[in-house]
Structure formats: structure tokens, C-alpha cells
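Assess the record.
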Amino acid sequence: MNSVLVIDDDPGLLQMANDIIGDTYDVSLADSGEDALSLLESGYLPDIILLDIYMPGMDGYETLARLRKIPAAREIPVVFLTALDSSKEQAKGLLSGAADYLTKPFDPELLLIRLGRYIEASQERRRLLAAQKEQNDIPDIDEDKFALLTGALSDTEKQVARLIALGRSNREIAEELFLSVKYVGKKATLIFDKVGVDNRYQLKQELKKQRY
């Protein structure tokens, strides 16, 4: 099932969004930009993000700017949600890098149609990028290092660690191993702790075969 991250400080809107799209998509909810960024930095990669503009603390514009600095999240389409519908506000939202702009309250049918279109486009782009990466940057794992570093891991954790080292996202790992994305995210955090690294990049560097 495709996934949608909804970011809004209004609990009522979060619940409404979940009610509208929860039967069609795997929905994750965040009530602030900070919580959403933490989720994305942990490896969770939704197919699309619905982002409120006006939130206390970190607003939607800052949240979008900061999530674009997360390499794995740069290509995720972001749709702004706001109660303001002036052409000036729409232009600002689109120029900031959002894929679309929806005003509250939104029409359920229109929301589902737009989500479907953007998710389809996002998946196609991911497939193209994955094919290019596989052609141009096929990683090499040092099997001796892998055996040594992952000795304390369970079989499932070793499978997840290998796929992380090969550059797979949490969603790709979940699909390949028939696991949930959230479960893979938790396993990834546990793996990093067990092998003594801080993140995916460090794990890949530890397991990369040296070339002489």
C-alpha cells in the first residue's frame, strides 16, 4: 500500500485526513514540522507529503526547505495545505518547491484523485532513478567485513543490513522482505546501535569493499 505523511498542528484535520485517505493509503501523522523531520531522518520515506503551511514554531515553508536537505526525501512530492486561497499565497507555495496547493476544507474526491496522480508520478521517477543508480553505481560489499560486523544480528537484521548497505530505502526493503516500513525503520535503528554506527551512510562505508 502506498504511504502518505500528513503534517498539521490541527488534530481535527489530521483525523479528517486519516478518515478520508486511510482506506486507500498507509497514513502517518505528524503534528509539527520537527516531528515530521525526525520521522524522515529515521528512514521513513512516504510516497507523498501533505503539509500545512501555517503551524506554530516551524511553519510549512521552513519544514519543506529542511526536508529537501535530507537526501532520501528530496524527490518526495509535497502538497501544501492551507485555509488561505489567494493567488499570492498559491504562487508563494508553488515557488517554494511544493508540487501542488490544496485549500481547506478540501474535497475528499479531489484529494484522492490528486494524491493518486502524484504518487504514480513519484513512483515512476523513483524507478528511473533506481535504474540509473543500479547502472552507474553498483555497490560492492566486503563479505568478510559483513560477517564480522553483523555477527550479533538476527537473520532478519542481517537481511535488512545488507539491503541498507546496497542503498535500498526502508520502503524498498519492506517491499522486498514483505515487512512493514515502520518495522524496517525500527530494525534499522537497532542495527545501527548493535554494529556501532550512527546512520545508513556510515554502515555503507563500513561494509564497502576497498579498491586498490
User: Anything to note?
Assistant: The mean pLDDT is 84. Residues 124 and 130 are 10 Å apart (CA to CA).
